[in-house]
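pasting for ref
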Amino acid sequence: MAEESGKQNATVALWIERVTGLLEKPWVRIVIPVLVTGIALAVLHDLSAHVKWSDVTADIRAKPWTVMAFAVFWTAFSFFSLSFYDVFAVRSVAKGTVPAPVAGLAGASGYAVSNCLGFSYITGTAIRYRIYASLGLDLGRVAGVIATSWVAFWMGLTLIMGILLTLHPDGISKVLPISETAETVIGLALLAALLCLFVWLSKGGRRLGVAGFGFNLPGGKLAGMLTIAAVGDVFGASMVLYVLMPDDLGVGFPYFFAIYVAAIAVGIVSHAPGGIGVFEATLIAGLGASGRSDVVAALLLYRLVYTFLPFAVATLGIALASALTHRQRIGGAATWVYRAIRPIVPMVAAGVAAVAGVILLVSGALPADSQKLGVLRDVLPLSFVEASHLAGSAIGVLLLLVSRGLFRKLYRAWVVAMLLMVAGFCASLTKGLDTHEAISMLVTIGLLAMFRDAFYRVSGASIFRLNIPWLVSVVALLAVIFWIGLFAYSHVQYQNALWWDFAWNADASRFLRSSLVVAVILGVVAVNSLFGREIPAPKRTEIPPVVERLVMESEDTEAQISLTGDKQFLISDDDSAFLAYADTGNALITKGEPVGDEKAGQQLIWQLREMADREGKLCAFYSVSTKYLPTFLDLGLSILKIGEVARVPLTDFSLDGKSRKRFRQAKNRAEREGYTFEIIPKEELAPVLPELRAISDHWLAKKAGEEKGFALGGFDDAYLSYFDHAVLRDETGKIMAFANLFQGGNKSELSLDLMRYEPDSPSFVMDALFAEMMTWGAEQGFHWFSLGAAPFSGIENRQLASLWNRIGGFVYEHGEQFYHFEGLRSFKQKFDPEWSPNYLASPGGLAAPRILYEVNILISGGLRGLTK
């Protein structure tokens, strides 16, 4: 029985592992939301099969202004309510840090932008993080504000659903095919759970820790106010659509609200901006409103009022605040407001560009005004109008794609977006004399021009390369726009001849051709984004004389790895310090800390961080000590322990003792068998280099490996020529093993980097060479012998440790089959060394594993090099 149970557990574990691995694949993360969107659009297409676009536009025009006024009122009510999420969350997590009006404005503006951009748990979180971090909140408290706001939303939703299920008003039972008793039980359970939560929070002093961060939970009174704000938010948002719906729909608000919540949930899964398309399909199906043009009209107006109107208000407000900053006299309140909204300017600009792109794409998918085309017929040839129509759609999709570059504050993205919108303005006029569209392009150009100062980053990466979240959003949005075109031309019978129909009234043909152009552009960008990353090829750089001097003067032998030739250098103005780093295309990463004067080194750290920010890249400092930790913390970086460095004191060093028996015996055996130890000065190295290269090549072939870089030296004549070499010769004088010696200034420290041997040499050769080097170092008066780092060593893997420590501890304990972590530490422990911590200073959150992967690319060339 136990054996059978063990097999079942193993099977389940294997299945979970396979499913998890599948979900982590990029194509799966794209296919699932796109599949959800595709199914929803197919359902939407079926439900609206008998609806004509002309009927929808007529219903929109017939909508009374009083109804539109009520929709605007409920939109304002919803955004006013949701602004209190941040007001109360900040009061709970960081009381007194951010003024309440600023928190409310930041929250409302952030939601307006994220609702338009979509992918809210990415954009919304980024917006609020940047706002509150700029006002002095640390990462833990920012995470607390965001988490508190999310909890508030679900508390409000739980309260509303609990009341509806408990009272089961007329219509709610149609949504849930269960008895009234079951409804009441579920509703009471939800309300009881919410009440228990309030009681628990009212005790005070509640604190939550997540992924190494901790924050205070709101008390009972504050939690109640957060719940009221959430009720106002959700109720107001649902009322916007409810008042826009036709009067004869025949459903009460309780039933409508349940369908509304379900539509929001399905829209979140789709990852489309605002759940567009998926939200509509779920509502039409749930309300039983198939074939009703007035319901489609209500949904379009809802998008206009609840999504685009708040975004437009937020954009104009931010543009006004930006303009005010150019005035010499600006009040303290205005300064606070601008500080709050300045971090979201790039998101607003991205949203502006995306909206402009959507306008061009939707315009290209809908029939043109026949009267305006008649005017163009007398002025322009048909071929020019056809080309302008294709250009308008191409410009639209390019604006969607370049919006991520604006999100990343890239100057080139701003320039390209401005050029695209100028071209879009011209295309709007020449493809159909669409003056409203042309005016929107001019307004967009003006807004982006006002935001010019926000785009200062100069990056070598392509501005059209998207990550998976953005790619999914763009694919889903384009699918919805394509469906809009199909809907508009549902009365046209498809045939192959449509592709080649060039005529003034051939709107459907122009839509098909423009859709093909959009699909081709998106396909090229998708392939380039997923598979087009170029791993920079190692290039040998010239070592400046000041770097050579400072390296040899440094008492830290790790500085000498800067001479490998695969790094770039930041050098202080007075030549008193330098910083060695590598550029992976995504990040600037140093190997070690600054070498030279400490104050100059602090300035170099700031310079590198500012350079990375200008280029839109991550910045990290790999393998650093405690010397510059205060500076790294001032930069807002997280400090992560990645291992320990072993150093053996050479004062009174000897090979006596039980722990060093292995090395003592190896040294004695080498002497008995005629092996000799020798130090070859760097000045005399050239004649011996061919013999050393042969040993290195044999060693690499035996190990089936490749030369490493960045943190490790490879066999390079120019690099090795900087160092004396320790060699061990056999009785015939042939070199059997060698190592280049790092010698610190003032004989502070002795170490080594490249250590290789003939694969067919006796097993004691390397131990003997080690013993001889340390004995020689002690005789020469060196103070320390550095054995280098032991990865993940010394990381505490305890329940209360940070998430990173737990991951690092797990890798150290269970990664022995891939890399001999414990064996390496045990080998070095035989010399009774003193261990000092080794750190990585990098941006927090998910940036740390990304940085470590970039380091792996620099050292091993990626996963292929690592496995070899």
